[in-house]
Each structure stands twice: as structure tokens, then as C-alpha cells.
């Protein structure tokens, strides 16, 4: 009689003699991933999506289809209308405070010296990559310690006008909100901190002193 491809015969042990040829195992086949979508919502830590579809359904005990949707973390810093999101969503780019001395000299020479400000943060989390910085210009990252209070200076040209702020300074953030920072010169050195206060007139100490980029 005809050979039925219902897989039950494999359990009842009464498959027809040509079952393997008449009912070959066919696995699921899916398409390539689509391009990533935009963020689900602007100005929020949310997700983006990519999709794929089934080209061939599995048959005769073939391998099942994998996931057809994948999500990844996402943040967009611009609204749908093209305006900038609030400052606290933007991760801070920082470098050692020693860089500020050369920056001030250049600004003074150009006649562009403008009053800045400082922001104090408490370091909450630091990635291990900060300890793996072996270049001379990244040694300052070794002194980052969780729980320490750091002082970050905002000065020209990082001081943006007309907002009068440096990107990532935490303006508009809620109390005790975790904010993100990234060390310039080592993409593996990053972490989170909490904004403590802003000092409109400041001079950051030589230790634990940094600069917005």
C-alpha cells in the first residue's frame, strides 16, 4: 500500500520498506534577518527589532524553526520631529582632567575662553575593561573606583550653546537615577554613575578629576 509520512510508524515500528526515500527529513528553512528597525520609542531606553520568515516548513521530523524575531537594547537621542532628547539620556564621554589644561590654553589663545561648570558624580559600576588600558594616554582609567565621588568639568568647546550644557552631564535626571559614561580612548571602559550636584563655579581637584568631551 501507499507509504504515509506521518512519523507514527517510527514509534509503532511498522514503517514501509521505502519510508526513508518516500518521506525524507526536511528541516525548517528561514530567510536572512531583516534590517534592524528603529527604536520602539524615542528618548527612552527601549528596544529595536529584526525579523525573518519561514521559507520551508519542517516535515517528517525535520529540525524545528528557530525564533523569527530578535530584539536588542536601543536608545535614540532625537525625537520623531528631529528635536534633541533631554540631556540625561546621552552617555557622557569623559577623559582625564589633565587634558583640560591644554584645552584652556588653546581657548585663551583663540579668545574663546568661556566660563564653565563642574558636576560631581558617584561612580556606581565600572567595566573590567578600564583596568586593561596599557597605553600611556589611558592610564588614568586605572584610578576609577566604584563608590568614589568624581568631579567632571564642562568647559569650551564641549560646552554647547544655546543649551549651556555638556552632553551627558545628567541635566534633567531624577534623583539617584543611574546615568551612563564612556571613557574616551578605550571603548571597553564604561559604566554608570549618579549625579550628586552641579557646581557653577568650580575647580576640580587633581585626583578623580575628569573632563566632558
Automatic annotation (TrEMBL):
Keywords: Disulfide bond, Glycoprotein, Signal. It holds the Pfam family TSP1_spondin. It comes from the Eukaryota. Transmembrane segments: none annotated. PROSITE patterns: SMB_1, SMB_2, TSP1. Residues 1-28 form the SMB domain. PANTHER family: RPE-SPONDIN (PTHR20920), SMB DOMAIN-CONTAINING PROTEIN (PTHR20920:SF4). This is SBSPO protein. It comes from Erpornis zantholeuca. The gene is Sbspon_1.
